[in-house]
Design a protein that fits this description.
Layout: H1 10-27, H2 37-44, H3 48-54, H4 58-70, H5 83-94, H6 98-106, H7 113-132, H8 139-161, H9 168-177, H10 181-187
Helix pairs in contact: 1-2, 1-4, 1-6, 4-7, 5-9, 7-8
């Protein structure tokens, strides 16, 4: 689901970030699957009505944060950022909620972060190629997008589960190394490079 953060009121974003923080705190002591909406509401100091105004369920809390971070970083691959920049900036932001992501990656199923992040990566890479690069999406390129999404999510999830056995820069170098060559070349140069 594509979220429109630019038009989301600042107070709504702040509420969502507060719920993300409360969920991250709870994930320190319980597996993600064991967390309840009631416990999240209590920890965040909000009503269930407020929770359900912003989120459909506990899975959407992590999905929202993933999108919030990725919209400015990972999904900008080929748009305003290079592969290396997008991987580094995104993972750096995700690390700020390390325990939440570690717990969420342990969950499986359609709603899990593991599945959701793959779907979103496929969607945004396709969008970048069609809408930003204005290139046709043939079978080979589409296959490479799916292959990359599977490999990226599995690799980052494993890195978290293994206790981050190497530094962030090394992870990002490895992630860029698994991008299929044609896909890499297609998005190597950002359409509108970001000025820092």
């Amino acid at each position: 689901m594509k979220r429109d953060f630019a038009h989301q009121p600042a107070t709504s974003v702040q509420t969502c970030l507060h719920v993300v923080d409360a969920t991250a705190e709870l994930a320190l002591s319980k597996p993600f699957e064991a967390l309840t909406v009631s416990a999240i509401c209590k920890a965040a100091g909000i009503s269930r009505t407020s929770f359900y105004y912003h989120f459909d369920d506990k899975y959407e809390v992590v999905q929202w944060h993933f999108d919030f971070v990725a919209e400015h970083n990972l999904f900008e691959t080929g748009r305003t950022l290079t592969w290396a920049q997008a991987h580094y900036l995104n993972t750096h932001e995700v690390l700020q909620k390390r325990d939440l992501y570690l717990a969420a990656f342990a969950s499986r199923g359609y709603q899990s972060l593991f599945s959701y992040s793959k779907r979103r990566r496929v969607e945004t890479l396709r969008e970048t190629i069609a809408d930003y690069k204005h290139l046709p999406l043939d079978a080979e390129l589409d296959f490479q997008i799916y292959a990359l999404a599977e490999a990226e999510v599995a690799s980052v999830s494993r890195w978290f589960k293994d206790g981050m056995p190497f530094d962030l820069k090394t992870l990002c170098d490895y992630l860029e190394g698994i991008v299929p060559q044609r896909l890499h070349d297609t998005l190597a140069e950002p359409v509108n490079p970001r000025l820092y």
